Structure to design on (419 residues):
């Protein structure tokens, strides 16, 4: 067995704040020097251009993290398993790498996400608990006490597609920088053996109407009982459902800081919410009368005027303790999960345990799906598409359930034998 398979690799890329700008550094500085155990010819150049590629996504933390994960795996595999520079990899090597990612050695798999590097005794160094791959289980199973098992690791189709996307973008970058003569990912002719083509429409994960009624009612009850803690909870739930906001669109990051002034009234007296969303794309979202009512309630709690002015910089979602905007999506997830849990308990107490069960698996993003699914029943598809920020009508059409109902209704009475 290759010695590299018997132990976990040491992480390569730290967080963006510790990397610095590689375009302003010279190759002879410490910035591009690798740990002594990496002796592959060309590894220094691999590292330099990987850093430059990653740094080009410094405006989007999510994209940086996603691409860093894929490049980390590629470099670890290329250096330690193939013992080659990434500039030497061919089409067949990329295929071998994809197969490796589908079944990595157990020593390369962890059961929890941990930082790559940590501070210890005043110095920053690699975290011995970090692994390139992480086995996970559904949230509902975790809450039932089940633990992730590294032997059960299996990447999803979405994960495989993400690997292809990241690697192809990286090799395009290397091609432009004349580091490689061709993109080995683009040369692959049989990606279909790794990515299944599903003719069926993906299931849109959402909460049911009954579950949503309990969730929003629970949020209102919590806000009425302890407004200092849960008026914010109620406002967040309304934003996620009524405006289809993504969790990242509620928090402040390097891309934008959502503010009250992003609610704006046009010349016709209609209110819109201006948001910078996925892919750093700006869009406007229709603000319904009910959402405007929810905004007024939250602002009243904060001691603000009923409606914001266009230049108002008050954070959209403020910290309960201290000043400034919420900056952590994990914080928002915790707030929403607490509301889901409370709604679940109420449903069980009301004898609706079976109806409540799916709330144990629900995530924040389900509320966006739920809001879109409900609106697409009554609003023009193109209006929902633009409010949701979908790049195509095909994405919006995933939320249309009527054709599935009609399809099932037409086939429900099909006879197997003549009576």
């Amino acid at each position: 067995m290759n010695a590299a398979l018997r132990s976990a690799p040491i992480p390569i890329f730290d967080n963006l704040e510790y990397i610095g700008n590689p375009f302003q550094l010279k190759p002879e500085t410490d910035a591009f020097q690798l740990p002594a155990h990496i002796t592959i010819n060309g590894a220094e150049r691999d590292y330099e251009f990987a850093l430059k590629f990653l740094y080009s996504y410094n405006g989007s933390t999510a994209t940086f993290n996603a691409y860093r994960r894929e490049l980390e795996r590629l470099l670890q595999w290329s250096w330690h398993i193939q013992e080659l520079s990434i500039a030497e990899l061919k089409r067949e090597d990329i295929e071998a790498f994809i197969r490796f990612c589908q079944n990595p050695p157990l020593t390369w798999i962890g059961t929890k996400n941990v930082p790559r590097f940590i501070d210890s005794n005043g110095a920053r160094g690699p975290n011995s608990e970090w692994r390139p791959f992480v086995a996970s289980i559904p949230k509902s199973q975790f809450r039932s006490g089940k633990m992730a098992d590294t032997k059960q690791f299996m990447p999803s189709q979405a994960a495989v597609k993400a690997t292809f996307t990241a690697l192809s973008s990286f090799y395009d970058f290397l091609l432009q920088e004349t580091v490689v003569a061709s993109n080995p990912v683009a040369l692959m002719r049989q990606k279909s053996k790794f990515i299944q083509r599903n003719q069926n429409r993906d299931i849109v994960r959402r909460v049911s109407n009954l579950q949503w009624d309990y969730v929003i009612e629970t949020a209102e009850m919590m806000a009425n009982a302890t407004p200092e803690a849960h008026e914010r909870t109620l406002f967040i739930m309304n934003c996620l459902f009524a405006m289809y906001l993504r969790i990242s669109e509620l928090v402040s990051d390097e891309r934008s800081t959502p503010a009250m002034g992003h609610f704006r009234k046009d010349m016709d007296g209609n209110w819109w919410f201006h948001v910078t969303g996925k892919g750093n794309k700006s869009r406007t979202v229709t603000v319904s009368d009910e959402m405007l009512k929810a905004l007024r309630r939250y602002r009243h709690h904060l001691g603000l005027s009923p409606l914001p002015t266009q230049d108002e910089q008050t954070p959209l979602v403020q910290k309960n303790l201290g000043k400034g905007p919420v900056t952590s999506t994990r914080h928002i997830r915790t707030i929403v999960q607490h509301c889901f849990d409370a709604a679940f308990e109420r449903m069980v107490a009301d004898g609706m345990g079976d109806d409540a069960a799916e709330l144990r698996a629900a995530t924040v993003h389900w509320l966006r799906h739920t809001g879109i699914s409900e609106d697409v029943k009554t609003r023009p598809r193109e209006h929902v598409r633009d409010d949701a920020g979908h790049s195509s009508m095909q994405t919006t059409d995933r939320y249309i359930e009527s054709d599935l109902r009609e399809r099932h209704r037409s086939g429900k009475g099909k006879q197997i034998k003549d009576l």
